[in-house]
Design brief:
By secondary structure, the chain is mainly alpha-helical. It has 3 helices and no strands. The chain is globular and about 35 Å long. The termini are far apart.
Amino acid sequence: MTTIESPCILVCSIDMTTGYCFGCGRTREEIGDWLTMSPETRRSVMASLPTRLETVERRPRRETRRSRMARERGETA
């Protein structure tokens, strides 16, 4: 079985202004199509996520799985 990289951090809520998920930055359509996208398309979407996340109106208030794991490894999130 092949592992598919995903930006999901289990903070699944859509910003109604931008249409992006507060946690990962994907649109509803991208989230739904993720498993059927080509690896190249997924990489393209993932490259745009940091810029998208800068445009959402609020940030998650709770600690995300990604930040918790980085904290536990001693990294800065």
